[in-house]
Design a protein that fits this description.
five-stranded mixed β-sheet, single chain, 6 helices, 5 strands, alpha/beta
């Protein structure tokens, strides 16, 4: 089972790849420049490379709250959903509130990072960097890892119900 999680944004996005339950890849991507059709296509091409290169089966997308949905973000989300479905992947969208609701211990960004690092200690360097930095850079990556982790738990529960 391979899960790609994306914390979606038009300027910055976080990526997490779980392969057979293990965190295989994580990254923060920055997309500079003014919003345009070309920028949208560049972002989608990057996600498509992840999907095809890693033979992704499931995609979990963490989206901002509705109050932060711009026309550009909605366009990107629509096209990303179409791409994911075209590639034959299952797709699920969640907000940060959904992630927090799934894990009561997660009340803020700091506790979200703590929760993620507890399950994936390999991310300790990124957490340390985030805590000492004046500007948040890896937050979206941590959100993506959390979305992937919770999606993995959801799939595991669904499989056990069928047995």
């Amino acid at each position: 089972m391979k899960i790609l999680a994306i914390s979606l944004g038009t300027r910055t996005s976080g990526i997490a790849l779980l392969s057979h339950g293990q965190l295989a890849y994580w990254r923060t991507h920055t997309f500079s420049g003014k919003w345009s059709a070309d920028k949208c296509n560049d972002i989608l091409a990057k996600y498509d490379r992840y999907i095809t290169r890693h033979h992704i089966e499931h995609v979990a997308i963490k989206i901002p709250p509705a109050t932060h949905h711009t026309k550009a973000l909605l366009t990107l989300l629509k096209k990303l959903t179409q791409l994911v479905q075209y590639r034959g992947c299952m797709v699920a969208c969640h907000t940060k509130s959904d992630l927090k609701a799934a894990v009561p211990d997660v009340a803020n960004t700091e506790s979200l990072m703590d929760y993620v690092v507890k399950h994936y200690p390999i991310l300790l360097p990124e957490q340390a960097q985030e805590r000492t930095s004046r500007q948040a850079y890896h937050i979206k990556m941590f959100e993506a890892v959390m979305a992937a982790h919770l999606y993995k738990q959801h799939l595991t529960r669904e499989r056990s119900r069928r047995i």
